[in-house]
Amino acid sequence: MPRHDHFSTRSIHVGSDPDPTTGAVVPSLSVATTFMQDGVGKLRSGGFEYSRSANPTRSALESLLTSLETCPTDTVSEDARHDISGGESLVFSSGSAATAAIAHWVTLTEEEGGAGGRDGKGHGGHVLAVNDVYGGTARYLARASRPTGLEVTFLNMEKAGEQGIREAIRPDTKLIWLELPTNPLLLVPPVRLISDIVNSLPSETRPLILVDTTFLSPFYFTPLIASNGDQHPLADITLSSLSKYSSGHSDIILGSLTISPKTNQLRPTLLKGLRFLQNSMGASASPRDCHLLIRSIKTLSVRMLKHGLNALRISNWLSITATKDLNYVERVRYPGLKSDESFKYVQDLISKNAKKELQFLGWKFPFQHKPSSTTTSSSENEKQGEVVDDENSLEYTRNLGIPFGGMITFAIKNATSEQAEKFCTSLRIPILAESLGGVESLVEIPYGMTHSGLPKETLKELQITPNLIRLSVGIEDYDDLIEDIEQALKIALSS
Ligand SMILES: *Cc1c(COP(=O)(O)O)cnc(C)c1O
């Protein structure tokens, strides 16, 4: 009987078959660099030759990622453990190595499977990117890849609108680079509009859409799976820094590219070109890291759900603080909070799997909230003297919005950069450090840390001010986190 498995089941079982000889329920780690041949060029089944080009543990991770990123939850498959969609994943030694490979692909000759650059023969070619991409991505596209002739335009897609986006797509535009949500402001670019524009162009030559989904992981966002009755998935390729939520424990650096089944079918040379680059550039993932990452992904569902619940509740607390007695913070941003300017996109974009998990907890889609509850911006309700719901109840939380990732940004009102720093160093639980996505909460100041390399005008334009705080909400106890944030705000503002 054909059967299908849901995301959580596949995250545990795909790529993790029991060892065929010993029956060990955890597959063995394959550390060999090279593989015996039974004759010249006669490889054993599996086709492994040398671990830079392919390795069994890395392949297992790649099949797991392909399943999570490209198999719809209601796929019917012959076998629960090998939910095959026709998509493909490639794992690299870091998210940045994945960035380098796809950027190089733009400039690679068509003969080698590349996009051909400016004229098909390689060198040049154009990438149209959202204007506030991850700093390392901007650095790679604008600076490191310059010798390949690659040209990049950074565009505020929201502002540009349909006409502006159409005008920015050149005949040699090979790739449209999106990130969702953006960092650190957690904005959601109009991905559906961009997808519609690109899909209206001739399918053989249109640019491909890449989305960096690092901040959400495939638990919350799977743009390679067509949903809502769409003909096309929203994107062709996802890029993920697996070093963040997929690892989840701040102890692995890895990255991946995944190609949608549809794109893999229409552009079979894309995979060939990327495998060629993966092998040639040598940024291979260590099998040990791949093994550990397979383990991490087994708990992705439970972690992401808790990250999302904590972040929704904390962003609400910060918003209430901003409007009530404490009055310490402003510009709280969390796309899942119903008052957030990006909230309108969340219901459309959130994965079917995340919806399923949330429906079990009582969320309704389309989102509904009871106006009687006292939430973010409902000071009117208080005036009417209505009973305040128990803030520690699930019912209250369901009224706040939709869990959508674990990242929050906010500004401390009128704080100097010293006061913002004091806040970070006065926290007992969140650790002052770059990066995100671990089970432990991390806090940082983009102005002085992750985004300090940006030009001053860009910082100003993006409103990355010295008092802006980015919080990667971990899965610790909510009450402990709130108590800690409150005490640190008080210390900071009295310093
Ligand atoms: C961290 C990160 C990267 C780069 O990944 P590494 O694994 O650190 O090389 C790319 N994109 C986003 C959004 C990131 O957060």
Automatic annotation (TrEMBL):
Keywords: Amino-acid biosynthesis, Cysteine biosynthesis, Pyridoxal phosphate. Its EC number is 4.4.1.1. SUPFAM superfamilies: PLP-dependent transferases. Residues 1-23, 370-390 are annotated as: Disordered. The keyword Mitochondrion does not apply. One of its GO terms (biological process) is transsulfuration. It holds the Pfam family Cys_Met_Meta_PP. One of its GO terms (molecular function) is cystathionine gamma-lyase activity. InterPro entries: Cys/Met-Metab_PyrdxlP-dep_enz, PyrdxlP-dep_Trfase, PyrdxlP-dep_Trfase_major, PyrdxlP-dep_Trfase_small. Transmembrane segments: none annotated. One of its GO terms (cellular component) is cytoplasm. Its cofactor is pyridoxal 5'-phosphate. Pathway: Amino-acid biosynthesis; L-cysteine biosynthesis; L-cysteine from L-homocysteine and L-serine: step 2/2. PANTHER family: CYSTATHIONINE GAMMA-LYASE (PTHR11808:SF15), TRANS-SULFURATION ENZYME FAMILY MEMBER (PTHR11808). This is cystathionine gamma-lyase.
